């Protein structure tokens, strides 16, 4: 999915709101979307990844983790992935799970990502069309969860 199509989607947020959209949230990080609750605590970070570079995907996890620790929160990272024939959600998920487990073992404080969810861009679009709240059980059932 192209960025323009992604940003035109109706992202169903429930009681949450978009806190940032393609904006620098600090000097080194510019996620596609951050979703916050009514008291502006970041609950979700969404990264649209059109590249299937596993190094890039692991880098996205590291940047989101650092941002979460700096904020003192525990958001869900959602990676919306454009699948290719050489890359499946499961294979990418296994690689990310491996590195995410390592990252969690290095934590000195209780902050950082709670989970990483990987969803195919077609599934994300279908979820939006169906009106599923991002992060809900029905939305997460479409994802590969790395916890």
Protein described:
The chain is an alpha/beta fold. It has five helices and six strands. The chain has one domain (3-146). The protein has helices at 3-8, 54-71, 89-105, 121-130, 137-140; strands spanning 17-21, 33-36, 42-49, 76-81, 115-120, 144-146. The protein has a six-stranded mixed sheet. β4, α3 (89-105) and β5 form a beta-alpha-beta unit. The radius of gyration is 14 Å and the shape is globular. The chain starts with a helix and ends with a strand.
| Range of helix content | 25-40%
> How many separate helices?
5
Number of strands: 6
Helix/strand/pairing category? alpha/beta
- The gyration radius over C-alpha positions equals 14 Å
The residue ranges in which pLDDT falls below 50 over 5 or more consecutive positions are none
Look at the structure and give the mean pLDDT. 91
Strand order of the largest sheet: 1-2-3-4-5-6
Shape: globular
Strand content: 15-25%
Series of H and E elements: HEEEHEHEHHE
Largest sheet: 6 strands, mixed
Task: Give the termini separation.
Answer: 25 Å
Overall number of structural domains: 1
Question: Could you provide a short overview of the structure?
Answer:
The protein has 147 residues and is of the alpha/beta class.
SSE layout:
Elements: H1 3-8, E1 17-21, E2 33-36, E3 42-49, H2 54-71, E4 76-81, H3 89-105, E5 115-120, H4 121-130, H5 137-140, E6 144-146
Parallel strand pairs: 3-4, 4-5
Antiparallel strand pairs: 1-2, 2-3, 5-6
Keywords:
about 20% strand; 6 strands; alpha/beta; about 150 residues; globular; single chain; about 35% helix
